[in-house]
Specification:
alpha/beta; 2 domains; five-stranded parallel sheet; 14 helices; 29% helix; 22% strand; FAD
């Protein structure tokens, strides 16, 4: 039996999640729309979200910190591709510097939110993870910044014969603190960002590491430090350097993506030639780093200073492209007939998507199925008032989109206050087809697309994955357009007035 608090506290804005997005949303609210009361609900007991949860060896960003960092807080460390601990400290420092810490309620897992049009507010139900208590708060605006994957469970397929394997099988999302792989043979199953991060890090202590992949990924080596940032820092203060390097990286990233989509064959050749220059003579690049799909059909994997390629050159790691037939007592038997000896197996097999943290939404008593709705500007949902969700870019740094969403919410709140509006409700497009919310073909995306809203055929319902275009739309574009309706709450009349 759980205890239940009867008092309902009200805040102007309720933010769900104290990770990179949630802390950014709170800071922007204080900076750009001050005077509003707010609270941040966080299911875990620490700030940092992804960067506090993931503790596997070598965990790092797959985007540069000049774009993964906040627009208002310069990244001042030397490494542009940063390790997880440095990113966690950056988020924690930002929360402390802006006084956000005192607004966070830790161990509060949000399970439901109910909208009342009569009251023009949300009632949010959270469970106290530490005590089991049920807590309710109300808010005028609800921003969900919980990311899009499940924190307590990664994607973990069942492998034939796994029970026979004598060693540990671990998932990076739940890395054991006491796991010792020193001098052992390690097989990492997977080919995505987590796998290419793990392999060179594990290879520093392991006897040998094998990356076993069913389908390869495109992998590109980039400098761990940004040369332009290093040059400018010798002459200019950090606050002057940061926006210059940030915009340089935004434009380079956009150009690379657009080139990939318009000339995929040329980009494929470039990526494979770049990999070939980093690998030993005679290495089968086409098999192990030549995916059957076009660049950016799935997210590109970045390796700082080519550390994955260096581990392969040194003979400390290798890549095997094959399918698993079954586990054995001493390793993994492959469909080709070969067998990989292993003492430890790491299943870097991906994430489980969980939109809006798994919470349920209800509008005036009607349950909301996200898959039946159309997204508005990639951040709101048709028919759901005073609600925003933050999902970052798939082809660029997450925080670029998170910053835009947070600042747009501030614009909306100020506009509503100025016009006397109580509700802001997106409306679905009147005609035209819809498309998946995320265009990637990655397994973790395809497994969960049905749980996400759709997007429309054109703006403002279309998600373009283009920072400059979104910047113009969300920072400079009109707030009132065909995709949204602003209304005032109609006061409830008492019985005598109705009778009269």
């Amino acid at each position: 039996m759980t205890a239940e608090s009867t008092a309902v506290e009200h805040v102007d804005v309720l933010i769900v999640g104290a990770g990179l997005s949630g802390i950014g949303a709170a800071c922007h609210l204080q900076r750009e729309s001050p005077g509003r009361s707010y609270a941040v609900l966080e299911a875990r007991e620490a700030i940092g979200g992804t960067w506090d949860l993931f503790r596997y060896p070598g965990v790092r960003s797959d985007s540069d910190m000049f774009t993964l960092g906040y627009s208002f807080k310069p990244w001042t460390e030397a490494r542009a591709i940063a390790d997880g601990g440095s990113i966690r400290r950056y988020v924690q420092d930002t929360a402390r510097e802006h006084g956000v810490e005192e607004h966070i309620r830790f161990s509060h897992r949000v399970v439901a939110a109910e909208w009342s049009s009569a009251a023009a507010r949300w009632t949010v139900t959270a469970e106290r993870v530490d005590t089991g208590e049920t807590v309710r708060l109300s808010c005028s605006w609800l921003s969900v910044c919980s990311g899009y994957y499940r924190y307590d469970e990664g994607f973990r397929p069942e492998f034939p014969g796994e029970e026979r394997f004598a060693g540990p099988v671990v998932h990076p999302q739940h890395w054991p603190d006491d796991l010792d792989w020193t001098g052992k043979r390690v097989v990492v199953i997977g080919s995505g960002a987590t796998a290419v991060t793990l392999v060179p890090s594990l290879a520093e202590r392991a006897a040998h590491v094998t990356m076993l992949q069913r389908t390869p990924s495109y992998v590109l080596a980039l400098p761990g430090r940004d040369p332009l940032a290093d040059a400018l820092r010798r002459r200019l203060p950090a606050r002057a350097v940061y926006p210059v390097v940030r915009w340089k990286n935004v434009l380079v990233s956009m150009a690379s993506y657009q080139f990939s989509r318009r000339r995929p064959a040329a980009m494929r050749r470039f990526l494979q030639q770049a990999a070939r220059r980093q690998l030993p003579e005679g290495f089968d690049v086409a098999t192990h780093f030549g995916p059957p799909y076009d660049p950016w059909d799935q997210r590109l994997c970045l390796v700082p200073d080519g550390d994955l390629f260096a581990a392969i050159r040194a003979g400390r790691a290798d890549v095997v492209t094959d399918r698993i037939a079954s586990f054995t007592e001493t390793g993994i038997a492959l469909e080709s007939g070969a067998e990989l000896a292993a003492d430890v197996v790491v299943s870097a097999t991906g994430l489980v998507l969980l939109p809006i943290g798994g919470m349920t939404l209800t509008v005036d008593g009607e349950p909301v199925q996200l898959s039946d709705r159309v997204s508005y500007k990639g951040m709101m949902v048709s028919g759901v008032p005073n609600f925003a969700m933050t999902i970052g870019y798939t082809n660029a740094s997450w925080t670029l989109k998170a910053d835009l969403v947070a600042r747009y919410v501030c614009r909306l709140l100020d506009h509503m206050a100025a016009t006397g509006s109580d509700t802001c409700t997106p409306v679905a497009p009147p005609e035209g087809g819809t498309a998946p919310f995320i265009g990637l073909t990655s397994g973790y995306v395809q497994r969960s697309l049905a749980a996400l809203p759709r997007q429309g055929a054109r703006a403002p319902w279309r998600l373009h994955q283009n920072y400059v275009r979104d910047l113009l739309l969300m920072r400079r574009g009109p707030l009132a357009d065909a995709g949204v309706r602003f209304t005032r709450r109609q006061p409830v009349r008492d019985a005598e007035e109705v009778a009269a």
